[in-house]
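Notes to self, Trans-1,2-dihydrobenzene-1,2-diol dehydrogenase:
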Amino acid sequence: MATRWGICGAGNISHDFCVALRTLSHEDHQIAAVAARSLESAEKFAKTHGIPKAYGSYQELVKDPNIDVVYIGVLHTHHLQVGLLFLNAGKNVLCEKPFAMNLREVRQLISAACENNVFLMEAVWSRCFPVYAEVGRLLSESAVGEVKMVKAYFGLSLLDRERITQKEQGGGGLMLIGMYCLQFALMVFKGERPESIHATGVLLPSGVDESMVVVLKFSGNRMAVCACSIACDLPNDATICGSKGMIRVGHPMHCPTVLELNGKKTEFPLPEPGLPLNFPNSTGLRYEAEEVRRCLLKGDAPFNLLL
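result:
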């Protein structure tokens, strides 16, 4: 039986997610409904993506019994309110990153998932890419020996975009792109808690972070250096340095299609999109959709943290 998706939000990322879903088998994934803050927006989105039902409120999507999981693609600052709406109604949820605006809100979402015994996953799509799976395999085989240093850089020139520079709209470099660097380091070190964290950064007049550099020290004198910026372009790649070699995840490191092991490249091509995309490599969103389906079929509730 196909996993029936409900789409919450009719913005750019929801568009790309639906395009990605269309690259998967219709027998496994179907888009059953979309909800937006206005019926006009929902109907326009539904027409673009061939979705049978369009709702002019999120509450209507909550009441639809023919939805297996809801994809939340609304503004960051609304993740808590909208997430709780669906979780408390007994709906499984894939919520765009960042999960919420702070730890307190994240704990509320996780508690709601546990209390209602439903599935909840943060859409850190990077973790589901074949390149990341290959990185995990290489590390498990000690392909570069003992890991000593991890470097991850991600920067884009985005200061002309109001949503990204305003605190009230969930802006800031760390929330938007810096988390990709940190999650990569934590993945390499298997979710281990750092022994120390040293960070410095620059704030915009609005109060959100423009640029940041953080150094994480892990047990066994292992280090990670992460840098992000919304003021300038950075290499947008990641490197794992070991005692016997190096793994490099190519640009863009958050949705990669190229992996290098000691200079030898391997490519992992993505399927072509059926419609124009808003963000690079967005057909790769298909991988997190497949992970959600795998978890639901396996019964991985109440949540999947992808540590």
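- The chain has a mean pLDDT of 96.
- Residues 173-188 form the longest helix (16 residues).
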